[in-house]
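Possible regression after last week's pipeline update?

I re-ran a chain I had predicted before the update to compare outputs. Posting the input and the new output here so someone can diff against the archived version. Not blocking, just want to make sure nothing changed silently.
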Amino acid sequence: MKDAIQSAAHAAMHRTLPPQLFSGLLAISADAVIAVDDDQRIIFFNEGAEKIFGWSAADLDGASLEVLLPNRFRAAHHAHVEGFAAAHGRARLMGERQQLSGLRRDGEEFPCEAAIQRLEVSGRDVFAVVLRDTTARQHAEDALRDAVTAREEMLGIVSHDLRNPANAVKMLAKSIFDDADGELVPARVLERVAVMRQAAEQIDALIQDLLDTTRLAGGPLSVRPCVVDVVGLTTRALQGLEPIADAGHVSLVAALSPDLPAAFVDPDRFVQLLSNLIGNAVKFTPPGGVVTLSAEVDAGELLFVVTDTGEGISAEQLPHVFERFYQAPRDAGPTIRHGAGLGLPISRGIVEAHGGNIWISSTPGVGTSVRFSLPVATSA
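New output (post-update):
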C-alpha cells in the first residue's frame, strides 16, 4: 500500500512538470547528452556535447554517431548498440571492460565515461547517451602515478646509496671501541665515537624504514615466522629501548605475564615492531611520563598494548595516522617534523603480514593506546 501511494505521488509530481523543464535541464548539462534513433543518427545534441566535441547541434543534426568515435571503435560500437537494443535491459554503463574514447572535431581523442539508456518513442527505439569527458581526471591520475613512481625510485636509490657510508661509520666506530680495550683511546674520544655510532644506527634504521615503505607499495611485507619465546624476546627488545626512554626522561614499564604462550612470529620483525611503536610513544610523551607495554591472550591470539601518557591525537587526525609520511600537527608548529612518518605504516604492515590486526585509540591531553594482535604458536 505504501509503495502504491509513493508511486502515485511521484506520478502526480511528474505530471505537473512541463516537458520544457526536462529539455532545458538536459540542454544546459555540463555532460554531453546525446540521443540517436535506431539507425544511430543523432537527433539531440546538448550544449555540453557541443563544448566537449567541438561540433554544434546544427552540424550534427541527422549525422551518424560514428563521427564522434575514433575509427578503430566504430564497427564494434555499432554492434554493441544493436546488441543492447536486443537485450531486455533498458540502461547500463558503457565501457565496463575497456577505456572509452571520444573524438573531437579537431581530431583529438579523449578519455570518457558514459551510460546508455533505451527509450521507446512513438513505437521506435531511441538511445540516450550521457557522456563525461574525463581528460582532466586522467591527467591528474597520470601525474599522481608518475610522482609515486619517481618517489619510489628515489627512495630506492637514496636508501642504497646511504647504507654504504652508514655501515662504514658503524664499522669504524666498532674498530675504535676494539682498540679501546688496549687503553689506546682516551675516554672523551670514546664518548664522541659512541654518539657517532648511535647516529649511524639511526640512519640505518631510517634506511630500513624507507626500504620497507617501498616494499609495502608492492604488497605485504615478507616475514619468516617461527616459534618464539615472546617474553624473552620482548624483554631483550625493551632493554634496547631503555636508552631512548632514559634520554627523554620517560619511564618504560613492562606488564607481561611470565606464562604467556610462545608466539609464531618473525623475531626480527617483532623487535622492529616494538621499536617503532614504543619509540613513537616515547617521542610524543613529555618528560616524567610513562610508556607501558602489556600483553595477554585474547580470543586465541596474543594481544599487545602500548600505552603512553603523551599529548594524544585528535579525532580528526586519528584516521590518518597509518598513512605513509603522515604526521599529525603538534603545538610546536606544523613546520617541525618528528621523524619521517613511517613508523606506524610499517608497524601495520608487519602486523598484517603475520595475519594480525592493529588499531589506535587516543584522548588529547591524556595519551594514546596502540593495540595489535599476533598469532600464538599453537594456532599457527
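Follow-up from reviewer: compared with the archived run. Residues 2-133 form a domain with the Beta-Lactamase fold (CATH 3.30.450.20). Marking as no regression found.
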